[in-house]
Design goal:
The protein is of the alpha/beta class and 215 residues long. The chain is 58% helix and 10% strand.
């Protein structure tokens, strides 16, 4: 792992010493994400309650600048200007390159229709089946590791050639048993688990941004 990327992990465990024991899990999950994006894949994210908010938070950090500027290419800027000299110039100045991430919690019409018409526990599985492609990554966030809708989504992911990262609590639950990489934070209380999830996924976002947009 490049030193410029590794520094973010080192800062994470310095700020949160309790995460030292799972540093290798955090690094392994990052490498799965790096491989996905290097090969043109995308990240699909799901969770419930506070973890649903985390799913949207992660997508927000990846789809636009987190800390590093992500300007569009010169070639794309020129195409924009050719199409519309005024709007194209503004867009070229303002658009930011993305690492594609889709929060499966954010599509209210689709999710409520599926829950109403079919099955509440299959709502993430349905979206994963529709959006996911081989080579993508599914990040399932579950403090218990036993969320039924997350577990259903992992079945679809594995059948589709989509790697699974589980972000859980200390016990890991069922999710840890089926995930390609399970990151099990050393806490048992839900809110304490969630408090450690945030710095971990911020670290991943920083590492990915450094890898793909850093100088």
């Amino acid at each position: 792992m490049d030193n410029k990327v590794q520094k973010h992990i080192e800062l994470l465990v310095k700020r949160y010493p309790q995460l030292k024991s799972i540093q290798s899990q955090i690094e392994q999950a990052y490498l799965v994400l790096e491989e996905c994006y290097a090969n043109g894949g995308k990240l699909l994210i799901a969770g419930n309650g506070g973890s649903a908010a985390d799913a949207e938070h992660i997508a927000g950090e990846l789809m636009k600048r987190f800390k590093i500027k992500r300007p569009v290419s010169k070639e794309f800027a020129e195409k924009l200007a050719e199409i519309d000299a005024v709007r194209g110039k503004q867009l070229a100045d303002n658009l930011e390159c993305s690492l594609m991430a889709i929060p499966l919690v954010a599509h209210e019409a689709l999710t409520t229709a599926y829950i109403n018409d079919v099955d509440g526990y299959g709502v993430f599985a349905q979206q994963l089946f529709g959006y996911g492609r081989k080579g993508d990554v599914f990040l399932g966030i579950s403090t218990s590791g036993n969320s039924k809708n997350i577990m259903n989504a992992t079945v679809v992911a594995r059948a589709s050639g989509i790697k699974v990262i589980g972000l859980t609590g200390e016990t890991g639950g069922e999710l840890a048993k089926v995930a390609d990489v399970a990151v099990k934070v050393p806490e048992k209380e839900t809110y304490m688990i969630q408090e450690l999830h945030l710095p971990i996924y911020h670290c991943w976002c920083l590492m990915l941004e450094e890898r793909f947009f850093g100088e």
